[in-house]
């Protein structure tokens, strides 16, 4: 009984405990870490990855993967900068819908469909931007700004998306179907769920969240760059996995993903504060991801 | 939640043994700590810049904290914020993209920490600017290629949207009219040697009469030379950019006609020099121009010591 409950506890709160350990160790070894300003900075720094990762959580819970979120974020931000922010959101959702259609109706594996979109969306970003960064309008710049000192909007947006993700996963039919599809797609189909249709929505949601993350990023810089968010899909997947979701589907929570994104941000911030050489930082981050995944595999043993 | 915290505290005590001794922080001693925010260390050029900075910092008795943005402009803003938190006395910024550098500059300005830009310009308030001109370097490359050959040439471009590629490409186009060369074909090879090889193979397939190739960095130029084989330096002239050790070797061997060197180590050391002045509140030289140099077989010996 005790072994089981410890395991259950570790799987549900492992990431959170890890985050707290990390934060505590940093607080003691460097006084600059536990300042209000630095903690707010970490929150802002986690925001874009967290929002991407919330979208990714839907996909992963439903047993899929979305490699295109970084590129979609860049495309949406660029379209947003060239036209208006909301147009960027629409473009992001449309890219996600195309992903969903390729997976549902084209029967492509999610890995392949979204890998194709990764390339297409990045290419389109370069096409529409002509390879140049473009300044964002006031609305988008506002998304990246501070409402008041110590009250940055990216941080609030991250929390808002956290709330929305939690609601969708636990309080809606779509959310419950995500778990059903990810748990056992055949069973979900046999129980009358229109799996193909649900997948359309799931990938569209991921695209929409990616677009929002892209706008937040661009807002922070006051400009959308053609190479923005390159490689962020991997950070988003890492955040979801560190948060305890299973890449084989059916498992994952909004809280876990938030903690996962914070772990990555705290690590990056802390490793710089501790003056760890940049080359070693990548090693440490990789080890943390591996440990988190090991925890996941341990749980399912 | 409470239980979690208790467990975390226990674990934290263990973890501390490992980390606490490693974290000296910025608080110790009266040493001046300078932050260096580099665009990427995944490129020999910036590694050399960092080495030059480190050497000068050691010489001046300053402490250097290096952060690497891995070519991500947002990540760089985060890192500059972290340097500010850490209480460094001056920040040297090598922006990922000049046009997206304003927020990073702002973070330093708000904390009244002097900012020194290096290699690329920064949009915002800087105490000193240490740079060599990429656009000018591109023009010099075009002039040199026009001197070495005439006729149709190919243009190998770096990562699209990257400022180094933009500036060098723009300078190259501006310098074209000085000689008797014309760009007949362009390809993107992402500053990568292997891609330079493939793309040059493709270019030569479509335009077998090309007389020269300009590559926006030495890595791509070396790829092009591989693709050209025995033709490199004989009937097809290749001009690169950067002056990396491999590039200089190719010049000695006669396969690379010329390269444009930016002297990254000098960029790094000059930046630290100004940063230390600024940190001490001494006067700084606002613009430090580190000359770009065309290296050919005639003068290559000066650069390979």
Question: Which stretches of chain A are low in confidence, meaning pLDDT under 50 for 5 or more residues running?
Answer: none
List the chains of the largest interface with their residue counts.
Answer: A-B, 50 and 48 residues
Instruction: Give the integer mean of the pLDDT values of chain A.
Output: 91
Alpha-carbon distance between the termini of chain A?
16 Å
What is the overall silhouette of chain B? Answer: elongated
Gross morphology of chain A is globular
Q: Count the E strands of chain A.
A: 4
Tell me the helix content of chain A. over 70%
What are the SSEs and their pairings?
The complex is a heterodimer of chains A (301) and B (305).
Chain A: H1 2-29, H2 36-61, H3 69-82, H4 85-104, H5 110-129, E1 134-135, H6 138-143, E2 146-148, E3 151-152, H7 153-171, H8 173-183, H9 185-190, H10 195-221, E4 223-224, H11 232-242, H12 254-273, H13 278-299
Antiparallel strand pairs in A: 1-4, 2-3
Helix pairs in contact in A: 1-12, 1-13, 2-7, 2-8, 2-10, 2-11, 2-12, 3-4, 3-5, 3-10, 4-5, 4-10, 7-8, 8-10, 11-12, 11-13
Chain B: H1 2-19, E1 33-38, H2 44-60, E2 63-68, H3 73-86, E3 90-93, H4 102-110, E4 115-118, E5 128-131, H5 134-148, E6 151-157, H6 163-175, E7 181-188, H7 193-206, E8 212-215, H8 218-228, E9 237-242, H9 245-253, E10 258-261, H10 264-279, E11 287-289, E12 293-295, H11 300-303
Helix pairs in contact in B: 2-10, 3-4, 5-6, 7-8
Provide an overview of this structure.
The complex is a heterodimer of chains A (301) and B (305). Chain A is mainly alpha-helical. Chain A is 76% helix and 3% strand. Chain A has helices at residues 2-29, 36-61, 69-82, 85-104, 110-129, 138-143, 153-171, 173-183, 185-190, 195-221, 232-242, 254-273, 278-299, and strands at residues 134-135, 146-148, 151-152, 223-224. In chain A, the strands form two sheets. In chain A, strands 1-4 form a two-stranded antiparallel sheet. The longest helix of chain A is centred in the first third of the chain and has 28 residues, at 2-29. The radius of gyration of chain A is 19 Å and the shape is globular. The two termini of chain A are 16 Å apart. Chain B has helices at residues 2-19, 44-60, 73-86, 102-110, 134-148, 163-175, 193-206, 218-228, 245-253, 264-279, 300-303; strands spanning 33-38, 63-68, 90-93, 115-118, 128-131, 151-157, 181-188, 212-215, 237-242, 258-261, 287-289, 293-295. In chain B, strand 8, helix 8 (218-228) and strand 9 form a beta-alpha-beta unit. In chain B, helix 5 (134-148) crosses helix 6 (163-175) and helix 7 (193-206) packs across helix 8 (218-228). The radius of gyration of chain B is 22 Å and the shape is elongated. At the A-B interface, helix 1, helix 2, helix 10, helix 12 and helix 13 of A face helix 1, strand 2 and helix 3 of B.
């Amino acid at each position: 009984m005790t072994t089981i409950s410890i395991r259950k506890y570790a799987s549900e709160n492992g990431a959170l405990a890890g985050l707290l350990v990390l934060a505590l160790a940093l607080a003691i070894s460097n006084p600059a870490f536990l300042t209000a300003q630095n903690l707010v900075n970490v929150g802002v720094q986690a925001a874009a990855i967290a929002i991407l990762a919330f979208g990714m959580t839907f996909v992963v819970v439903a047993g899929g993967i979305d490699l295109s979120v970084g590129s979609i974020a860049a495309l949406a931000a660029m379209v947003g900068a060239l036209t208006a922010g909301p147009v960027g959101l629409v473009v992001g959702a449309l890219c996600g819908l195309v992903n969903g259609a390729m997976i549902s109706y084209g029967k492509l594996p999610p890995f392949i469909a979204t890998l194709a979109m990764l390339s297409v969306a990045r290419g389109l970003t370069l096409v529409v931007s002509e390879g140049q960064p473009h300044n964002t309008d006031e609305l988008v710049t506002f998304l990246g700004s501070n409402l008041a000192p110590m009250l940055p909007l990216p941080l609030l947006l991250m929390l808002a998306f956290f709330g929305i993700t939690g609601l969708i996963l636990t309080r809606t039919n779509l959310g419950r179907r995500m778990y059903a599809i990810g748990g056992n797609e055949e069973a979900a189909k046999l129980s009358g769920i229109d799996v193909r249709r649900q997948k359309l929505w799931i990938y569209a949601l991921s695209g929409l969240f990616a677009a929002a993350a892209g706008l937040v990023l661009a807002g922070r810089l006051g400009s959308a760059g053609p190479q923005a968010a390159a490689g962020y899909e991997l950070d988003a997947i890492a955040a979801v996995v560190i948060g305890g979701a299973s890449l084989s589907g059916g498992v994952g929570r909004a809280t876990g993903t938030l903690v996962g994104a914070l772990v990555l941000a705290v690590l990056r911030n802390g490793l710089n504060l501790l003056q760890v050489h940049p080359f070693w930082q990548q090693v440490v981050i990789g080890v943390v991801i591996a440990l988190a995944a090991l925890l996941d595999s341990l749980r399912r043993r | 939640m409470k239980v979690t915290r208790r467990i975390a505290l226990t674990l934290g005590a263990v973890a501390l043994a490992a980390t606490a001794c490693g974290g000296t922080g910025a608080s110790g001693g009266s040493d001046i700590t300078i932050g260096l925010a580099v665009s990427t260390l995944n490129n020999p050029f910036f590694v050399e810049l960092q080495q030059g900075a480190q050497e000068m910092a050691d010489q001046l008795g300053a402490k250097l904290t290096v952060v690497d943005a891995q070519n991500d402009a947002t990540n760089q803003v985060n890192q500059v914020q972290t340097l500010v938190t850490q209480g460094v006395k001056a920040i040297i910024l090598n922006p990922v993209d000049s046009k997206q550098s304003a927020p990073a500059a702002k973070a330093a300005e708000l904390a009244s920490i002097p900012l020194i830009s290096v290699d690329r310009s920064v949009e915002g308030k800087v105490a000193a600017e240490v740079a060599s001109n990429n656009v000018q370097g591109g023009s010099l490359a075009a002039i040199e290629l026009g001197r070495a050959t005439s006729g149709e040439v190919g243009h190998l471009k770096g990562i699209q949207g990257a400022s180094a590629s933009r500036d060098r490409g723009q300078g190259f186009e501006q310098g074209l009219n000085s000689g008797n060369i014309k760009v007949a074909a362009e390809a993107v090879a992402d500053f990568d040697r292997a891609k330079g090889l493939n793309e040059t193979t493709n270019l030569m397939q479509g335009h077998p009469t090309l007389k020269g190739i300009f590559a926006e960095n030495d890595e791509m130029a070396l790829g092009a030379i591989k693709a050209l084989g025995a033709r490199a330096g004989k009937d097809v002239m290749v001009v690169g950019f950067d002056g990396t050790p491999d590039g200089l070797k190719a010049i000695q061997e006669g396969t690379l006609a010329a390269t444009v060197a930016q002297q990254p180590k000098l960029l790094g050391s000059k930046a630290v020099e100004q940063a230390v002045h600024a940190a001490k509140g001494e006067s700084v030289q606002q613009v430090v121009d580190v000359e770009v140099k065309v290296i050919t077989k005639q003068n290559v010996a000066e650069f390979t010591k």
